[in-house]
Amino acid sequence: MMELDEPASDVEENNPKEVDDERIEFNVNYSDNWRDDFTESELYSMKLKQTLEQYSIPTQAGRDITYFIRLMIKRTQKATKAGDIAPTILFQDTLDAVLKKKLPVKYDDLNVCHNGCIVFSENMSECDRCKKDNSKSPKRKSKTMKMLNIGSQIATILCDKQTRELIEYPRNEFQFKQGEYTDIFSDEEYQRLSSRSNTCKEADLNIYMGLYIDGFENTNVSKHQHFSILHLLFFNFPPHLRADCICP
């Protein structure tokens, strides 16, 4: 029978760091019968299949993961032959810490009620709806959500000459044509607002954003929790760039 030792997390409490390879490698043990019937590649593939089925991961996602693993193996072999440092895959908690440190996109981790009722403020000790405690103990992980400060991201865009030029599209590039709808700025409501509002006319730069909900609801959650996806669209960018700027 094949047994796999679960890997330890490579993040310690409040101090994310890498650990020795021995702690994060799977230890595959199998009997002589399994050794005779299956190759090591097949055994690892069986473990992957088991994991995919355990978490109900779609077949296509499983294929994508398999392609990704094969690519990693090839890159590792190539790096080893060249005497370079072989690539590895970080655990998600380590990756979150790395991204938060290196990327200009900064977000805050907020404590959330375990039943999903509310987001706790700093001074709240319990949920005012279900009375669940707001756990701040480092030994007891609380439920969290990430909050992105949109104002800070816009300020970052404005500070960069290249991106600032891009978000000046409504003023510098868009051309209104009567009776022709080419962009959201062609809409009658926008034209009415921009013509009547002195604030819009006199401002050095106007920021236009849209908030949308598509009605999607995740059904793979407990019966006590429901959530939908909100999409924030930044209209200042040219239309061909907006699809890459959606913030779910």
TrEMBL record:
Span list, region Disordered: 1-21
Domain of life: Eukaryota
Comp. bias (Acidic residues): 1-13
Protein name: Uncharacterized protein
Gene: PARPA_09350.1 scaffold 36214
